[in-house]
Each structure stands twice: as C-alpha cells, then as structure tokens.
Amino acid sequence: MHRTPVARTLPDFPWDSLLEAKIRAQAHPDGIVDLSVGTPVDPVAPHIREALLSVADQPGYPTTHGTLALRTAAADALHRRYGVTGIDEAAVLPAIGTKELIAWLPRLLALGPGDTVVIPEFAYPTYEVGALLAGAEVIRSDGVFALGPQRVEMIYLNSPSNPTGRVLGVEHLRKVVEWARERGVIVVSDECYLGLGWDTDPVSLLDPRVCDGVFDGLLAVHSLSKTSNLASYRAGFVTGDSELIGDLLEVRKHAGMMVPLPIQAAAAAALSSDQHEAEQKKRYRHRRDVLRSAVEAAGFRIDHSEAGLYLWATRGEQASDTVAWLAQRGILVAPGHFYGPRGAKHVRIALTATDERIEAAAKRLAA
Ligand SMILES: Cc1ncc(COP(=O)(O)O)c(C=O)c1O
Fold first, then answer.
1. CATH code at position 314
2. 202-246: per-residue pLDDT in tens?
3. Pairing of strands 33-34, 218-223
4. What domain range is 201 assigned to?
5. For residue 128, is it within any domain?
6. How far is the CA of 192 from the centre of ligand 1 (A)?
7. Residue 225: CB within 6 Å of ligand 1?
8. Ligand 1 atom with minimal separation from the 162 CA
9. For this UniProt entry, which segments traverse the membrane (predicted)?
10. What is the per-residue pLDDT across 131-148, written as a single tens digit (0 to 9) for each?
11. Is residue 141 domain-shared with residue 204, that is, in the same domain?
12. I need a labelling partner for 88 at 20 to 30 A (CA). Which of 21, 73, 225, 237 fits?
C-alpha cells in the first residue's frame, strides 16, 4: 500500500479502526456521546483570544525560540503552578503543539538506527511513532530496573498517564533520574496532564524534590491543549537541560519549526493567568464524578485514574466487546490496546465532553 519505507514502518492510525463503533454510536436516537478522544469542548478564555488578536496585524516571521514574554510566562507558570524553581527563560522552547515535538524529538536529538527509546507499558502512541520516525528501537517498560544492562538513549515518562491516569510519586521519579544520570540517558517527561490531579498532586520531573534543581539530561514537555483549552491553537513547550534545548533550537530553526506569533501571544496570556485553568479543572472534576459513579454502577472496575482526563476501565472482557457494548448505548470510547498490547481488556473513557453529554452517558449507563 505505502510507497515509502517510513510510511510502512508506522503503525496504522488507531482511531481509523473505530469507524464501525462510531457509526453504531451515531445511530443512537439521542446522538453519540464521543468519549474516544481527549479533545477540549469548552470555550477559550476571552483574555487568550484577545492576546491572539492583539498581534494579528504583524506581518513578519516569528522566531523559533519564541518571544521573551512567552518564555518568561512559561518559566513563571511552572514555578507558580508546580513549584519548579530555577528555569532559565532561555531554556524554554515553544512547540507547535506537543504532539509535533514528541513525534520528532528522537530525530531532532539525532537518535537513529541502533538507538533505543523506552516508553511506558501503556503509552500515548506518538512516543512510539517518534522513535520509529528516527529509525530507533522501542521498548515498553514501566520500570528502569527491569531493563537490565541493555544500552538505552532516551526514556519517556508520562505522569499523570494517558491512558491510565497513574501518577508517579517523587521517589519513583527520583530513582529514574538517578538511574538515567548514571548511564547518560535522556529522560523526557510528558507533563500534559500535570495540572489535573484528582486524588493526588502530580509532581514534575523538574521539581527540586526529584532532580535537586539539576536539569542535566532532563526535558519536561508541557501542552496548553488540555488545561487552557487550546488544542486548536497548537501550543506547547519543552524545557529543562539548557544544552539539549540549545541543540533542539538550532535544528528547529533550520527546519522552520516555529510557532505562529499570534499563538505565541495567546500562549503567553494563557500561561500568565491561572483562573481559567482552575475553572476548567473544576468542570472536569464534576464530569469525572458523574461519569465515574455511572461507569462503576454499570459494573466496570476503574484502575488508576487518580489524575488526568480519562477513566481506565474494564469489565474483564476483551476491549473490543466493551467498545461494542458501549457503542450500542451511543457511547464511543477507545480500546486499551491502542496504548499497548497489555491494554487488551481495558477501555479509555475521556472526560472531555459537555456536561449535557456526560449526563446523557450516565443516564444511558444506568438504563
Ligand atoms: C500524553 C499526551 N501527550 C501529548 C499530547 C499532545 O498534545 P498537543 O499536541 O495537543 O499538545 C497528548 C494529547 O492528547 C497526550 O495525551
């Protein structure tokens, strides 16, 4: 089917396989409740939209490194929101949404054939895609000590996890950092859901309790898509080890990977204020409470899910059967095997639907 080797190497795009279930769910008389993807549905805060418009008349190219205002806002936000100290604004690099960054990161850091990237057992699919685009090998593992003596170049952490909502504590993160430092391994922490802790407070890789304020070999990736409802804008950033960020900046300058200026202005506004983020978190907490009770009352077991935007749920049967059972009730979810072979009996249920749709799902589950 594919003409190029790189396209042949990549897995099929998982969501394409959900079409049949989607058609069945759409046939429900009261319409589909689509909980299969984590896409925001709530409005973009007015001050963010105003910031976008404020530079809409500027014709020149933006810089790859981003404006000083954006970089400073990112460093300040990590301090204010998550207690990360000591980030130099120069070591902040904007991304055109973090999916783009993750998909190209191994390649941008010159990993290639013969190199190995470790990704979580259950993982956002783009970690694997990024390694494959670089021609590197992928190993799935949640524990570094299970890896043995094998040489590894990069390891991904994702806490809170997509899809499981599992949170890694300070001790776990510290051990990974120590292990990686002894071996010169780059640790990349995808912190997309860091602000969405429900039963616990998630911790950044760059937290002083984890890394003692030393960022060597460490990168933290932050998306504005979920907590500031900016998925359509494509805004995120990476920070941490200043030398690695410097190398990434050089390559991204050559490759034209620059964030549009209006998006930079919007992102700076989003990172400079916390109120809209707190309000959004409240909305998600409410939806989680409603959905969690309904899913449990319908006989599911929910594992982990102490943070983030998903319920990781099982009925003890094959995920495809659960997807079909829910689709008959007009509810679309993602099967666990999208995220790793061991997810065969789980489904991932997103909290990203309107209050009205979440209530509709709860009613259908109770019927
Ligand atoms: C774990 C994780 N990382 C990164 C992303 C990408 O986010 P974005 O490209 O919108 O910044 C997502 C999106 O769902 C995600 O779940």
1. 3.90.1150.10
2. 999 999 999 999 999 999 999 999 999 999 999 999 999 999 999
3. unpaired
4. 46-272
5. yes
6. 6
7. yes
8. 1
9. none
10. 999 999 999 999 888 888
11. yes
12. 225
